[in-house]
Automatic annotation (TrEMBL):
<dbReference type="InterPro" id="IPR029063">
    <property type="entry name" value="SAM-dependent_MTases_sf"/>
</dbReference>
<dbReference type="InterPro" id="IPR017127">
    <property type="entry name" value="Ribosome_uL3_MTase"/>
</dbReference>
<dbReference type="GO" id="GO:0032259">
    <property type="term" value="P:methylation"/>
</dbReference>
<dbReference type="InterPro" id="IPR004556">
    <property type="entry name" value="HemK-like"/>
</dbReference>
<keyword id="KW-0689">Ribosomal protein</keyword>
<dbReference type="InterPro" id="IPR007848">
    <property type="entry name" value="Small_mtfrase_dom"/>
</dbReference>
<dbReference type="InterPro" id="IPR002052">
    <property type="entry name" value="DNA_methylase_N6_adenine_CS"/>
</dbReference>
<dbReference type="Pfam" id="PF05175">
    <property type="entry name" value="MTS"/>
</dbReference>
<dbReference type="GO" id="GO:0005840">
    <property type="term" value="C:ribosome"/>
</dbReference>
<protein>
    <submittedName>
        <fullName>50S ribosomal protein L3 N(5)-glutamine methyltransferase</fullName>
        <ecNumber>2.1.1.298</ecNumber>
    </submittedName>
</protein>
<keyword id="KW-0949">S-adenosyl-L-methionine</keyword>
<feature type="domain" description="Methyltransferase small">
    <location>
        <begin position="133"/>
        <end position="216"/>
    </location>
</feature>
<keyword id="KW-0687">Ribonucleoprotein</keyword>
<dbReference type="GO" id="GO:0008168">
    <property type="term" value="F:methyltransferase activity"/>
</dbReference>
<keyword id="KW-0489">Methyltransferase</keyword>
<keyword id="KW-0808">Transferase</keyword>
């Protein structure tokens, strides 16, 4: 492969990757948002180097085997349009690694940033008054299990239930739970939202449900079409499952608990449809008005 012959350093391959990805017109949004970030991730992960430390390695020379593998990897990314996380078999949320393949949507969520920050910790803004008393956490639509695992890291004293309808997603989630040594704290359940949970109540419910509207699902870029469509499809306006969660959550929240939910671009629809709910919108580095918080008291 000519690129493997002409390129020699990590700097060369990151530059080549940016050029190749840009020329191919690939779409991002699976953990990276720019060609530079994606090229750097692919090079560093392929070489088993820390994915958040590019500068120390830029002038490192690569072996012919490494160069051949990287050139083929960029070619596969551009020709198949598979998400980089699927090609690498791994991705990261705030530095925490997760296995990733086509059994579940690529791990990504604005909620991951919120959990990995201090929003729910002792120094947070007080969404949960006493974080050390959180004993039960629920992750609905868990997919790869990433948010359930992050929640177990934030609340090591808590039992975390994680629910998904897809057996394939749960199989991947089980691998991630085992990789992080969380088997004693994260419990996987197959079922439709709250159905497999009985009457259990939770101090915190987190959920990143399918929320893409039908028109947008039909027009998803090629990268997103490699992911399970059930992880996206939220009905005509994208909010069918969110409505079900809002209807059922009060029966599963402890009196002092609350729910954090990612909904994409449906803020105006929700606020118009539920004028009595005081949605608290939690913005992140890359989102505004796409994640809400409601307490059990807010939900009545």
């Amino acid at each position: 492969m000519p690129a493997a012959d002409d390129l020699h350093t990590i700097r060369d391959f990151v530059r080549y990757g940016v050029t190749r990805l840009t020329a191919a017109g690939v779409s991002f949004g699976h953990g990276t948002t720019t060609a530079l970030d994606e090229a750097a991730f692919m090079v560093l992960e392929s070489l088993h180097l820390p994915v958040d430390e590019l500068d120390p390695w830029l002038d490192a020379r690569l072996t012919i085997e490494e160069r051949t593998r990287l050139a083929a990897l960029f070619e596969e990314r551009c020709t198949t349009r598979k998400p980089a996380a699927y090609l690498m078999g791994r991705t990261y949320i705030r530095g925490v690694p997760f296995r990733s393949d086509a059994r579940a949507i690529v791990p990504r969520s604005f909620i991951g940033e919120l959990l990995a920050g201090d929003l729910f910790g002792e120094e947070g803004i007080g969404l949960i008054a006493q974080p050390d008393r959180v004993q039960r956490v629920l992750d609905l639509c868990t997919g790869s299990g990433c948010l359930a695992i992050l929640a177990a890291m934030v609340y090591p004293q808590a039992e975390v239930d994680a629910v998904d309808l897809s057996p394939d997603a749960l199989a991947l989630a089980a691998e991630n739970v085992a990789e992080h040594g969380m088997e004693a704290h994260v419990h996987l359940h197959r079922g439709d939202l709250f159905a497999p949970l009985g009457t259990t109540r939770y101090d915190l419910i987190i959920t990143n449900p399918p929320y893409v509207d039908a028109e947008a699902v039909a027009g998803l870029p090629a990268e997103y079409r490699h992911e399970p469509v059930m992880a996206f499809a939220g009905g005509p306006d994208g909010l069918d499952i969110v409505r079900r969660i809002l209807a059922e959550a009060p029966k599963h929240l402890a009196a002092h608990g609350g729910i954090i939910c990612e909904i994409g671009t449906g803020k105006e629809i929700l606020e118009a449809e539920y004028p009595g709910l005081p949605f608290l919108w939690l913005d992140t580095e890359d989102s505004e008005g796409e994640v809400f918080w409601l307490s059990a008291a807010d939900l009545g």
